[in-house]
Amino acid sequence: MTTIDKILNPFQLYTIPLDDWINNLIAFIVDRFRPFFQTIGLPIRWTLQNIEGLLNAVPPLIFIIAIALIAWKLAGKKVALYIIISLTLIGLIDVWEQAMVSLSLVITALVFCLVVGIPLGVICAKSDRA
C-alpha cells in the first residue's frame, strides 16, 4: 500500500472492531446466562411446537376455506378472495409447510405478547409507581 493510498483511504488502516466486540458480548451473555435462557425457552418451544403441529395437521384446502370464511365475515368478499388467491399461490409454489412454520412463529409471539402485555398493562394502569 502506497502512502497516497493510505492518505486517500485511511479506513484500511484504522477500523473499529465492532463485530468482534458484539461477538464477544454475545458469547459472554450466552456463557453466563444459558440456564436462564433455556428455562425461558421451554414454554416458548412447547407452544411453538404445538401450534406448528396443529397448523400442519389441518389439510391445506380446509385451512384455506376456513380462513377465507373468517375473512369474509370480518372483512368482506374482496379480502376473502385475496386470501384464497394468496394461500393458493403459497401452496402452488410448494412453500406451504414453511408458511405454516412462519405463521406458528407469529401466533406464538402473539400469545406470549398477550400473556406478558395484558397483566403488565393492568399493573401499569393501577399503579403510579409501575
Structure description:
- This protein has helices spanning 3-8, 18-57, 60-75, 77-92, 96-126.
- The longest helix is centred in the N-terminal third of the chain and has 40 residues, at 18-57.
- Helix 2 (18-57) crosses helix 5 and helix 3 packs antiparallel against helix 4 (77-92).
- The mean pLDDT is 92.
- The chain is mainly α and 130 residues long.
- The chain has 5 helices and no strands.
- The N and C termini lie far apart (59 Å).
What is the structure about, briefly put?
The chain is mostly helical and 130 residues long. 84% of the residues lie in helices and 0% in strands.
SSE topology sketch:
Blueprint (H helix, E strand, L loop, with lengths): L2 H6 L9 H40 L2 H16 L1 H16 L3 H31 L4
Helix pairs in contact: 2-5, 3-4
Strand residues, percent:
under 5%
Q: Count of helical segments?
A: 5
Structural class: mainly alpha
Low-confidence stretches: none
Distance between the termini: 59 Å
Order of helices and strands: HHHHH
What is the mean pLDDT? 92
Q: Could you tell me the number of beta strands? A: 0
What general form does the structure show?
Answer: extended
How much helix is in the residues?
Answer: over 70%
Taking Cα atoms only, what radius of gyration do you get, to the nearest Å? 24 Å
How would you sum up the major sheet? Answer: none
